[in-house]
Write a structure and sequence with these properties.
It is built from four helices and four strands. The chain has 201 residues and is of the alpha+beta class.
C-alpha cells in the first residue's frame, strides 16, 4: 500500500473513505501508478449480486447491470483514438478532445466536466470544467448526454468552460449527475457503517 501513496493522493478523495477491506482503491491506485486502464464492453459480461457479507448486512441489487447474452467480435480502438477512456476521477482523458480543441496540447489540459477536481491538484495551464470561470475562452451547454457530447458537438452554452486554470473558482459542481453519484455512495457507506455497528455491539 505504501508504494501507491502518491497515486492515492492524485485520485478522488472518496477513495480514502473506503473501508480497509475494500480492494478497489488499491487496484485503482495500481492503474494510476502504472498508467494502465481497464477495458469494459458497453454491455457487461459480469454483474454484482451485492451479497450479504463483509460489506453489506443485507443483499442488495444496486450493482446489477444489463448483461450481454450473445457472442460478439470486439473491435478495439487504439487508446489514442478512443472517446471513452476515463481517469480515476471518471473523467475523459484530455486526448479525447484533440479534434475539438486542436490548439491545446493534451499535456496542457485537465478535464473536470464533473467539477470535482480541486484546483490545487490541477497542474496544467488549461482546464475544461463545469466550475465557474471568470474569463472563459469558450463555453458549452450541458443539454446533451453524456456531458462530453456537448463538447464533441460544439453546443454553446454557459455550463462548461474552457479556460486558463487560474481563472476558475474552486467550487464543487452541483450538477445532477454528481449529486446522484454522491447519493449512491453515501447510501452504500451508510449500509456498511450499519453493518459495522451491529458487529461491534
Amino acid at each position: 500500500a505504501e508504494r501507491f501513496q502518491l497515486a492515492l493522493k492524485q485520485m478522488h478523495p472518496y477513495f480514502a473513505q473506503f473501508p480497509a477491506t475494500d480492494w478497489f482503491p488499491l487496484k485503482t491506485a495500481w492503474l494510476v501508478d502504472t498508467d494502465r486502464y481497464y477495458v469494459f464492453p458497453r454491455q457487461s459480461l459480469t454483474t454484482n449480486f451485492g451479497d450479504e457479507g463483509t460489506h453489506f448486512d443485507n443483499q442488495t441489487n444496486w450493482f446489477q447491470v444489463p448483461l450481454q447474452h450473445h457472442r460478439k467480435t470486439y473491435r478495439m480502438h487504439n487508446i489514442a483514438d478512443s472517446k471513452a477512456t476515463y481517469d480515476s476521477w471518471q473523467e475523459l482523458i484530455p486526448s479525447s478532445f484533440a479534434q475539438q480543441l486542436p490548439s491545446i496540447a493534451a499535456d496542457q489540459l485537465t478535464i473536470d466536466l464533473n467539477g470535482t477536481k480541486p484546483l490545487a491538484q490541477v497542474t496544467t495551464d488549461n482546464l475544461l470544467s463545469s466550475k465557474p470561470c471568470k474569463n472563459p475562452l469558450q463555453s458549452y451547454s450541458n443539454v446533451m448526454k453524456p456531458t462530453e457530447e456537448n463538447i464533441f458537438s460544439n453546443v454553446s452554452g454557459s455550463d462548461i468552460h474552457l479556460g486558463k486554470t487560474a481563472d476558475f473558482q474552486n467550487k464543487i459542481s452541483k450538477q445532477p449527475k454528481i449529486q446522484r453519484i454522491r447519493k449512491i455512495y453515501t447510501s452504500a457507506r451508510r449500509m456498511f457503517r450499519e453493518k459495522q455497528n451491529k458487529e461491534d455491539v
